Amino acid sequence: MAKPIKQRDVIDSVADALQFISYYHPKDYIGALAEAYRLEQSAAAKDAIAQILTNSKMCAQGHRPICQDTGIVVVFVKVGMNVRWEADMSLEEMINEGVRRGYLNAENKLRASIVADPLGSRKNTRDNTPAVIHYEIVPGEHVEISVAAKGGGSENKSKFTMLNPSDSVVDWIVKTVPTMGAGWCPPGMLGIGVGGTAEKAMLMAKESLMAPIDMAQLKARGAKNRIEELRIEIYDKVNALGIGAQGLGGLSTVLDVKILDYPTHAASLPLAVIPNCAATRHAHFVLDGSGPAKLEAPQLSDWPDVTWAPAPTARRVNLNTVTRAEVLTWKPGETLLLSGKLLTGRDAAHKRIADLFSKGEPLPAGVDFTNRFIYYVGPVDPVGNEIVGPAGPTTATRMDKFVETMLAKTGLLGMIGKGERGPTAIDAIKKHRSVSLIAVGGAAYLVSKAIKSSRVVAFADLGMEAIYEFDVQDMPVTVAVDSNGGSVHQSGPREWQQRIGKIPVVSN
């Protein structure tokens, strides 16, 4: 008879897995990204991948999060029908206690991003609970658990449609991926669910992302069934879009495509796609009563010999003295190294500022955006002697609706985030002769090393969403939208799609 599975083993295994995936990329991802770096011909995309690879190795060595967004926890659990338990908590309670301990670990405290009452107060739960848990009852005496931490930037780009049975899955995917923008931090993976019902397709798309990257092996041996043929076709056609790393234009947008399918109604073809970002955090383990899970860490030799350094052509900018006249000279795709003071602010801070203005009230004491830049970031808490924890950018488009107000009423010069800006933001940037910059999503620990001091200046109750003042030195950014409204996220992919030439360019 199999040994009972102990409560503490479930808790410890979940907590350990969440710590593990916060700072270790899967070995398969490291290998696939290294190959993408080797093949990349776009200078901007190659630089972005170099930052991600350098950040990845730094995090593995320092045991600090790959990304400041340490995700919403998603757990797939397969429980054997003959499992015996030694526990007084429910399985859901055990898993959530593991999440709590994993995120509050003093040696590597992870960012709490979960808010309760999503339609009301949106109050942070402070420990990243509860997890989203999916159960399956299967034969056997073991419990198999897959743990993932899904970042908001990629999760927000999930798409679903109900196709007609005769419609093309490939055509819809190729048409849809460009609408996802770059906020999901490519290069990553696409998880696709086909069939079942609406909720089944979404669940399959998410679960498919738990599988290892094996596209190179698949292409080498050739497809053996229709699903594998579709994986290769979608992979090739999505990469031919030229979106590239961080949406800057290049050869690698996806490193793999995963597909799960399920029987469906004769009148239906449910189709879901969920991207996995450059953090791609997941771990898998089995509990059989013999103790907690033990995960095998990658070796430092698994990383390629890539160390990011700024290009000699990068323009150094003093944020303390920069003028609008200087900003007007910056061009899309140009690399800048920022030094000096900047303020931070993301969703909740922007909402509060907008509410103050709507009531005719001033900004909080000590907050002055005049001739300053705002960085869209929610940093991880520091540990040890750190100034700040990993502090990579959040998705810029979520702040698009606030851009006109911020530029018109605060004297702000520009913004820093990740991904593209939408038409509303670009119009405001052009109108006010402003600029939008991007830092590399997936390089949060690397970016944090440029931050030399940090203090909260307003909205302290918002935690990671408070307004901070950072003093930075040589913080690497790229000009995404210039003062004339030119966007690298439009010009870069267009240029590289034409270069790749596998898909005809569609004119507007």
Instruction: Give the rounded overall mean pLDDT.
Output: 96
Round the Cα radius of gyration to an integer and report it: 23 Å
The main sheet orders its strands as 14-15-16-17-19
Q: Main beta sheet: strand number and arrangement?
A: 5 strands, mixed, barrel
- Compute the number of helices: 15
Helix fraction bin: 25-40%
Short précis:
By secondary structure, this protein is α/β, with parallel strands linked by helices.
Secondary structure layout plus pairing:
Layout: E1 5-6, H1 7-23, H2 27-39, H3 43-62, E2 72-80, E3 85-86, H4 91-103, E4 115-116, E5 123-124, E6 132-138, E7 143-150, H5 152-155, E8 159-163, H6 169-176, E9 188-195, H7 198-208, H8 215-221, H9 226-239, E10 254-262, E11 269-276, E12 282-287, E13 315-318, H10 324-327, E14 335-344, H11 347-358, E15 373-375, H12 403-409, E16 414-417, H13 423-431, E17 435-438, H14 444-448, E18 451-458, E19 467-481, H15 488-500
Parallel strand pairs: 1-3, 2-6, 9-10, 13-14, 14-15, 15-16, 16-17
Antiparallel strand pairs: 2-7, 4-5, 7-12, 8-11, 9-11, 14-19, 17-19, 18-19
Helix pairs in contact: 1-4, 2-3
